[in-house]
Amino acid sequence: MKNALLNSISNRLKNDKDAIFLTADLGFMLLEELQENFPDQFFNVGISEANMIGIAGGLARTGKSVICYSMSPFVTLRCLEQVRMHLSIGQQDITLIGVGAGYAYGPQGCSHHSVEDLGVMLSMAGINIYSIMSPSDLERTVKHQAKYKKPSYIRIGRSEPFALKNSNSKIIEIDLILTNKSTQNDHIQVFTTGSMTNYATKAFESISSELNSKLSIYNITQLKPFPTECLLKAIGENSKILTLEQNILNGGLSSLIANQVLQNQLKIKSFNSLNLPDEFIKKAGSEKDLMRLAAIDELSIAKKIREIDNE
């Protein structure tokens, strides 16, 4: 994922001399190449995320296209008022790139856990939201955002990414990642986003052959604007829906899909969600350890799918 980030930003700065990259003192052993190759387009503003967004707002007003990079809880929550003023209200050409979704920075403790940023950012008016699954997913998202130049938030995890086989699909589409091709009427449809797709695919590999139902895994990268038409085409009348995300229940992917199911009066059999708990896990540990404690690791996902299969 680091190489994809470096390549994507390098291409962006190379192809657009009005593009500016700001970092809040993050990216050692990664961004030095950017700084060396683009000295007039790269600025380290120090550990001052709110100031970084203010600087980005000023640059954007002069016609620059600005990318702001930091850990996901810091580039969103720490500077939320500035994000609201410059991106939401001002509609300026600023892209926030937040690395460390969910428990990616687990060893650093609760202050670095990014468990509610999706819900918060989805509630902000006029900001496009992308949750990254894989390196190719990141590359196509950066290209997409550069074309439309809308205020955006790109959320990146740090866990082992899933390799997207079809990287040519449009960012606004919902990617069918895996299916066991069963001919059963019941269809368990798992909708996931970002690094949760990796956990979902591991669960799929462990249980797909033992299920009575057809099982399909879908990834959704663009969460806002939400790909409603794609979702409506994907969901069938015999669907048992399960949503997965590294975010608390309120305001995230589960809320988005549930809203579409209700608004469009879709006839499904059941709706379930696995989310991060509505509380902070006050322990330091690896992402895998914290995901296990939160009961949203691949074993917990497999257990939930079995329960849905037996309904």
Automatic annotation (TrEMBL):
Pathway: Metabolic intermediate biosynthesis; 1-deoxy-D-xylulose 5-phosphate biosynthesis; 1-deoxy-D-xylulose 5-phosphate from D-glyceraldehyde 3-phosphate and pyruvate: step 1/1. Residues 1-164 form the Transketolase-like pyrimidine-binding domain. The keyword tRNA-binding does not apply. Keywords: Isoprene biosynthesis, Magnesium, Metal-binding, Thiamine biosynthesis, Thiamine pyrophosphate, Transferase. One of its GO terms (biological process) is thiamine biosynthetic process. Its EC number is 2.2.1.7. One of its GO terms (molecular function) is metal ion binding. It comes from the Bacteria. The keyword Magnesium applies. Its cofactor is Mg(2+). Homodimer. PANTHER family: 1-D-DEOXYXYLULOSE 5-PHOSPHATE SYNTHASE-RELATED, 1-DEOXY-D-XYLULOSE-5-PHOSPHATE SYNTHASE, CHLOROPLASTIC. Belongs to the transketolase family. DXPS subfamily. This is 1-deoxy-D-xylulose-5-phosphate synthase.
